[in-house]
Amino acid sequence: MPIRAENRWLYPIDWTQLSAAIRFDRAGGCCERCGRPHLQRVPHLGDGRWWDGKRRCWRSAEGRRIAALRVPLAKVRMTRVVLACAHLDHDPGNNAPANLAALCQRCHMLHDAAEHRWQRWWNRFRYRALRDLYEHPPLTRKRLARLRPSSLKN
User: Fold this and answer.
1) Which range of residues forms the domain containing residue 23?
2) Would you say residue 45 lies in a domain?
3) Per residue in 6-24, is it b (16+ CB within 10 Å) or e — as a string?
4) In angstroms, rounded to a whole number, what is the distance separating the alpha carbons of residues 65 and 76?
5) Which residues on adjacent β-strands are paired with residue 85?
6) What pLDDT is attached to residue 153?
């Protein structure tokens, strides 16, 4: 995941080396949750199940081997896996190796889902607060009249 400009100062100067050590030395170039390999095109079904070409078997979202699975070719999609170094406690200042994990895009998004929901709410809240402070009152009345025409008429 790219680092936001406002958060860059939270990361250590050697973040690229630390991230590489976690992703390639410790994790061996595979996701630590599901086992998907870095920079490989992986066939998947969209629900977390994916084809492990090295072991020639289907794997679950957690990386466990799935018994023989017959899948129509039309359901199979391809994705390129890119590993990222994730903070497990969502604190970019905590760079202890136990707090970092090498995760693929899917696992990283699932891990950060609650944080992303909160950030989306917070951005909407700030936008509305700024609009309430700086929007011209007649414009506000017109905008609200378009949204709820019957309830605002005198």
Assistant:
1) 5-40+81-112
2) no
3) eeeeebeeeeeebbebbbe
4) 17
5) 102
6) 55
- The conformation of residue 91, written as its DSSP 8-state character, comes to -
CB 34 within 8 A of CB 62: yes
Phi, psi of 35 (to 5 degrees): 90, 10
Q: How far, in Å, CA of 87 to CA of 3, rounded?
A: 12
Position 48 in a domain: no
Domain count, the chain: 1
Which residue type sits at 135? E
pLDDT in tens, 20-72: 999 999 999 999 999 999 999 999 988 888 989 888 888 998 989 988 778 88
- Residue 79 and residue 75: Cα distance in Å, rounded? 13
